[in-house]
């Protein structure tokens, strides 16, 4: 079975400061890892993914995430937060060795609040 | 990338009625997925729909409550049957662009009174 944990329901950060949204995962094989963002009354938007290769992945809107296999983590980061980054962020995982299909398992979500 | 549209975007329904949600994709895809996002919650997979076969339901979801159609490679419907207020959620259609890619529709916001 595969699972994802986002330990923080909400993260508060001041505009201009760096932000981190935490994610840890559990899979039996090797993971595909994803971050999605959901703005109010909008669908999910893809931010970035880790498949293989460099552990530091760069994505949309200046976000990046670091894959850490030993800690089974995939934390989302941004060097300088913007008020417009305020949204709900979801981490998701798929087991590369899962032959049951392309099912994504999502974390519980973390609400990011960036204050001016 | 795939462009996904859903109809309706939102609806308010009475208890005991049913609502059918449509999902249209701008390209042919093998697998389509239906997710539910209850208020303040994460996304939960309801079922996987392959064209030409019965949908595969996740634990806790049954075909009588959430019948799914997949008549062709670009379209699917999800029906929420005999609705109760507990069914109030956002329902999202999703398609896989490959094992490392998944796209989501804008969602259908359902409120059951």
Task: Please sum up the structure shown.
Chain A has 116 residues and is an all-beta fold.
- Main beta sheet of chain B: strand number and arrangement? 7 strands, mixed
Radius of gyration of chain A equals 14 Å
Low-confidence segments of chain B, ≥5 residues, pLDDT <50? none
Order of helices and strands of chain A: EEEEEEEEEEEE
Largest sheet of chain A: 6 strands, mixed
- The percentage of residues in β strands of chain B lies in over 45%
* Average pLDDT score of chain B: 92
Radius of gyration of chain B: 13 Å
Shape of chain A: globular
Report mean pLDDT of chain A, rounded to a whole number. 91
- What is the CA-CA span between the terminal residues of chain A? 41 Å
Work out the number of β strands of chain A: 12
Q: H/E series of chain B, N to C?
A: EEEEEEEEEEE
Written account of the structure:
- Chain A is about 0% helix and about 50% strand.
- Chain A has no helices and twelve strands.
- In chain A, strand 7 (about 55-60) and strand 8 (about 65-70) form a beta hairpin.
- In chain A, the strands form three sheets. In chain A, strands 2, 5, 6, 10, 11 and 12 form a six-stranded mixed sheet that branches.
- With about 120 residues, chain A is an all-beta fold.
- Chain A starts with a strand and ends with a strand.
- Chain A is globular, with a radius of gyration of 14 Å.
- Chain A has strands spanning about 5, 10-15, 20, 25, 30-40, 45-50, 55-60, 65-70, 75-80, 85-95, 105, 110-115.
- In chain B, a hairpin with a 2-residue loop joins strand 9 (about 90-100) and strand 10 (about 100-105).
- The model of chain B has no long low-confidence stretch (mean pLDDT about 90).
- The relative contact order of chain B is 0.34.
- Chain B has no helices and eleven strands.
- In chain B, strands 2, 4, 5, 6, 9, 10 and 11 form a seven-stranded mixed sheet that branches. Chain B has a four-stranded antiparallel sheet with strand order 1-3-8-7, with no helix packed on it.
- With about 110 residues, chain B is mostly beta strands.
- Chains A and B meet through strand 5, strand 6 and strand 11 of A and strand 5, strand 9 and strand 10 of B.
């Amino acid at each position: 079975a595969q699972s994802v944990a986002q330990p923080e329901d909400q993260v508060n950060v001041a505009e201009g400061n760096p932000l981190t949204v935490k994610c840890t995962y559990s899979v039996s094989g090797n993971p595909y890892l994803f971050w999605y963002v959901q703005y109010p009354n909008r669908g999910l938007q893809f931010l970035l993914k880790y498949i293989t290769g460099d552990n530091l992945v760069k994505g949309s809107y200046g976000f990046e995430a670091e894959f850490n296999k030993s800690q089974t983590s995939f934390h989302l980061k941004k060097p300088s937060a913007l008020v417009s980054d305020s949204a709900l962020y979801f981490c998701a995982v798929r087991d590369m060795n899962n032959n049951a299909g392309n099912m994504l398992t999502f974390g519980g979500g973390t609400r990011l609040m960036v204050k001016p | 990338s795939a462009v996904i549209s859903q109809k309706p975007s939102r609806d308010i329904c009475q208890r005991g009625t049913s609502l059918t949600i449509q999902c249209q994709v701008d390209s042919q895809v093998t697998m389509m997925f239906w997710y539910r996002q209850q208020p303040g919650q994460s996304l939960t997979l309801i079922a996987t729909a392959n064209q030409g076969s019965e949908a595969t339901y996740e634990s806790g979801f049954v075909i009588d409550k959430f019948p799914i159609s997949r008549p062709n490679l670009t379209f699917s419907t999800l029906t929420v049957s005999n609705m109760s207020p507990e069914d109030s959620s956002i329902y999202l259609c999703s398609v896989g662009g490959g094992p490392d890619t998944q796209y989501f529709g804008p969602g259908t916001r359902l409120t059951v009174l």
